[in-house]
Each structure stands twice: as C-alpha cells, then as structure tokens.
Design a protein that fits this description.
This protein has about 260 residues and is of the alpha/beta class. The chain has a domain at about 5-145 and about 205-250: Ribokinase (UDP-N-acetylmuramoyl-L-alanine:D-glutamate ligase, 3-Layer(aba) Sandwich). The chain is about 35% helix and about 20% strand. It is built from 8 helices and 9 strands. It has helices at about 20-30, 55-70, 85-95, 120-130, 140-145, 155-165, 210-225, 230-245; strands at about 5-10, 30-45, 45-55, 75, 100-105, 135, 170-175, 185-190, 195-200. A 6-stranded mixed β-sheet has the order 3-2-1-4-5-6. A 3-stranded antiparallel β-sheet has the order 7-8-9. The longest helix has 17 residues, at about 230-245.
C-alpha cells in the first residue's frame, strides 16, 4: 500500500516553506502527500507580506474529506495561526485519531515575521501538544512555549525539553539550527532517554523552510512504518543534505529554500 502523510499547514507563495515544502519532502521520500491548508500567505525569500487565515469550518471540511477517503499513516502540523483553527484541528484529530502526529509549533518565520497569534499559544500548549506523538520546536519556540529565556547550553536545552514533556507529549525534538558553532545539534528527548543528533553546520543563508521540511521528513518516515528513532535520524540526514545542497538552487534574493530533491538532481 502506498504510504500517505497529511500536512496541516499554511501555504507559502514562494514555495520554500509550509505546505509546499511539506509536499516536496513527502515526494522526495517516497510518500504520497495530502494537505489541509490553514492559511494563505503572501511571502517570498525576503519576508512575509500578508497572511489570510482560512475559516475554521473549511479547515474542518478539508480534514474530514481527507480522512474519510485516504489511509493517512502520519500527520504533520505546521502553521495554525489562531485559537479557532487550533480548536478545529484538535477536534478533527479527536474524531479520526491518527496514530502518528508530528507538531512543528510554527511561531516565527525564518525572516522574523510572527506567524502565530499570541492568544493561540495557550491553545497550542493545551490542545495540540497533548495530542502529538512528537513536537519539533526550535530554541526560540521552546523558550516561547515555556516562558523562559532561550537556552544556550545542552543542560538547559535538555531541562527545557523535559518540561515540554510535562505538557503531555511523549517526545520532543529540539532543533539546534539557531545555535552557534561548527556543528548543529538536535536533541530527541523522551521520558526515558536523550539522543543528541549532530551534523556539520552548512555555511549558507538558504535555510527557508528547514523546520517545515524536517518535521515533514519525520512524518514521512512514520508513515512508511519506521519507529520514532529511525524516522528522526533519517529526517536529520535528509535535511542536513538538503541544506548542504541549497546553494545549487538559486532562488530569490533573501533566505532561499533548501534543495528538497538533492538526491535526484
């Protein structure tokens, strides 16, 4: 049977992040991708110019249409935008009960533009995080979720990860791309263990959509039947290669996209 993954996220008109990056990642990893669009954004590699949130009822209709017909193996959630959308998504997940949900708590774009309304953060904590098998925040997002300063050491990162587990999810992948140094280390933290995943830091500014693509790669692995450790390890390898190859695709004048199809051309 063809593995299927569903992305619930916003559309990026420049194609580097959001729904477009998710579908490219699914395709690159041999998974059929379906989508529920939560928002239309007017953006490019230089920044976000406008956001139009979808009505919660159309998000509900999209979600129900997909699950009513497709055998979804895993779900990735990205930009959710508002409390109303979070409530609609949480209700839909409660009805359909997918086995694997990967939540990328998108709050700020690579350009620095805010993508999540302040009143939605509490709903994210209490409605979506407990429904997720894995959440994949970066260091600033971890700090925002916990109301703490951004971590600058491994001990603090791990401690913050364990506090995120207390919100109800069984696993957290804290992304280290916002850190410094020659290597980028992500931390997969569960109740039983902490697994550091280290890769060389690529010297490129073309990192648009890295978080979207990493979480989608994890969801793709889970949809194919991989266990969580394998899905995360394989996703880390995929995104590391995609960032390293990013300069081969010259797109835009700002933070360009990673090369999702680096294994093919």
């Amino acid at each position: 049977m063809t593995p299927i993954a569903l992305t619930i996220a916003g559309s990026d008109s420049s194609g580097g992040a959001g729904i477009q990056a998710d579908l490219k990642t699914f395709a690159a990893l041999g998974v059929y991708g379906a989508s529920v669009i939560t928002a239309l954004t007017a953006q490019n590699t230089l920044g976000v110019r406008g956001v139009h949130l979808a009505p919660p009822e159309i998000v509900t209709a999209q979600l129900d249409a997909v699950f009513d017909d497709l055998a979804v193996g895993a779900v990735k959630i990205g930009m959710v935008g508002s409390r109303g959308l979070i409530e609609a998504i949480a209700a839909g997940l409660g009805r359909w009960k997918p086995v694997h949900v990967v939540l990328d708590p998108v709050m700020v774009a690579t350009s620095g533009d805010e993508l999540l309304a302040e009143d939605a953060v509490d709903a994210l904590r209490h409605l979506l995080i407990p429904s997720s098998a894995l959440i994949t925040p970066n260091l600033p997002e971890v700090a925002a979720l916990l109301g703490e300063p951004v971590a600058t050491s491994e001990a603090v990162i791990v401690g913050q990860g364990r506090r995120l587990l207390a919100l109800g999810c069984p696993a957290v992948l804290i992304k280290g791309g916002h850190g410094a140094g020659a290597e980028s280390t992500d931390y997969l933290i569960t109740r039983d263990a902490t697994l550091p995943l280290t890769a060389p830091r690529a010297a490129t500014r073309n990192t648009h959509g890295t978080g979207c693509s990493l979480s989608s790669a994890v969801a793709a692995g889970l949809a194919k039947g991989e266990d969580l450790d394998s899905a995360v390890r394989n996703a880390k390898t995929f995104i590391t290669e995609a960032i390293a190859a990013a300069d081969r695709v010259a797109v835009g004048h700002g933070h360009g996209p990673v090369h999702h199809f680096h294994r093919f051309y």
